[in-house]
Amino acid sequence: MEYKFTPPQAALALIEGHRIEGYASVFGRRDKGGDTVLPGAYAGALARMEARGDKVRMLWQHDPAQPIGIWDEVVEDSHGLRVTGRLLPEVARAREAQALLKAGAVDGLSIGYRTLRAEALPGGGRKLIELDLWEVSLVTFPMQAEARLSQKTDILGQICALAAQLRSARAAVARL
Q: Of 18, 21, 135, 146, which one is the catalytic site residue?
């Protein structure tokens, strides 16, 4: 398995305290390892996963023993591989990841994949044409500077406040 770490300029966002979105890979940009991912590189892998009813896994720092959430959407667009998902608050490591994301201590994304088709680039590195995508991780140090969260807001705090208001309203109705 190979990994590509993406740096923060692609904007990895923490929304509502637990929803995250950003670009796990950006097309046409040479990464720190000298590789460049081409548009369409993930299409086959995403189609195969969909046909099997499978999903790209969300891991913490590429550790398969530490899934921290669910990627609800993983799609290629004209810019790269865009991911949208949610941290699972029932998972202790996900709560830790949420705190680190909020503080800005972690804001990178990285892909775990196997190369199916590539061509050597002059001066080193590869042109990645087709990849078998396994997972997208939240990471401290992305390989590609553009692989980051897009924005940060505390919606989980807002949801908790709304839940408290609903409990209060229910109690008031029960007293009637």
A: 135
